[in-house]
UniProtKB/TrEMBL annotation:
Any one GO MF annotation of this record: dioxygenase activity
Domain Vanillate O-demethylase oxygenase-like C-terminal catalytic: 98-272
Name of the featured protein: Aromatic ring-hydroxylating dioxygenase subunit alpha
Keywords recorded for this protein, A-Z: Dioxygenase, Oxidoreductase
Organism this protein belongs to: Rhizobium quercicola
Oxidoreductase recorded as keyword: yes
Keyword Isomerase part of the UniProt annotation: no
Pfam families the record matches: VanA_C
InterPro entries cross-referenced by the UniProt entry: Cholesterol_7-desaturase, VanA_C_cat
Length: 284
């Protein structure tokens, strides 16, 4: 595949590597069908189109290298919790998936699969019903939010072994980024923040890294990584077996339920943006 012509996709920022992993030797990867090279020079990290294109815009944020193949209309979104110095920052590593990155976002938003895919961790039977919640496109910030979400989880965090109904908030600040805020078990007046940064490689191939900003002084780094990686690898099995691999934008292709309110808002938002990369409309 060659670089997409989808301007809505090109004019966004994307996390493409973990900043700490970049040395002087170039790292080769792909973004939106385009080969790119990432390296560290005397003045900082350099990203360019391969084999010898001009330098691309670069930002270092949230432990990652961000770049764009176009001209973004706005800067990378803010995560307020990233500025709180007592939080633990836990990047969880990149996982490659044979699916559209947009499918990965929708899977992250979907609470209904918790009891079946993440049994005895994020969900369990008979607690399978998704209570009603509010989904909206926030026009002032151009983001999708799902609020007032509640769900019973047998293990609400790596530090906890007892189940409880948890309060969750979902946020989609960019088409290929999705976030979860949950009430911190050890500090009920604060929210843990988990972000998923997705690098769309091809229409039907992506990789993603969860990063966490946690109020947690008890867990080892290994236990935090294991908890998140187990969940994410369970999700990969589901995402890679969805058909079609690309995201349908025609409402009649997949029948939504009440639990899919956030997905409906997300797809409407993508259509308003005219984004085609990773969708059936784009492939056609």
């Amino acid at each position: 595949m060659t670089k997409t012509t989808d301007r809505a996709a090109l004019d966004e920022w994307y996390a493409v590597e973990t900043a700490a992993d970049i040395g002087p030797g170039p790292v080769s990867t792909r973004l939106l069908g385009q080969d790119i090279l990432v390296s560290r020079g005397p003045a900082g990290i350099i990203v360019r189109e391969a084999p010898a294109g001009p330098p691309l815009p670069v930002r270092e944020k949230y432990g990652c290298v961000w770049t764009t193949l176009g001209t973004p209309r706005r800067d990378i979104f803010d995560i307020a919790q990233a500025l709180e110095i007592d939080r633990r920052f836990v990047p969880c590593g990149w996982v490659t998936m044979r699916a559209s990155g947009l499918r990965v976002v929708e899977n992250f938003l979907d609470m209904a699969h918790f009891p079946f895919v993440h049994a005895d961790i994020l969900g369990s039977e008979p607690h399978t019903e998704v209570p009603g919640y509010l989904s909206e496109i926030r026009r002032d910030v151009d983001e999708v939010w799902a609020t007032n979400c509640t769900f019973f989880q047998p293990r609400i965090a790596a530090t906890e072994s007892d189940g409880a109904f948890v309060q969750l908030t979902y946020r989609v600040p960019m088409p290929f980024v999705v976030m979860l805020y949950r009430v911190c078990p050890t500090a009920p007046d604060r929210l843990d923040a988990i972000a998923l940064f997705i690098q769309p490689i091809e229409e039907d191939l992506c990789r993603a890294q969860p990063v966490m900003y946690l109020v947690d002084t008890a867990s080892t780094r290994t236990s935090l990584l294991h908890f998140e990686q187990v969940i994410f690898l369970q999700d990969r099995i589901i995402v890679e077996n969805q058909r079609p691999l690309l995201l349908p934008m025609e409402p009649r292709r997949e029948i939504p339920t009440r639990a899919d309110s956030s997905s409906i808002a997300y797809r409407r938002w993508l259509k308003e943006k005219g984004l085609r990369f990773g969708t059936i409309a784009g492939a056609g």
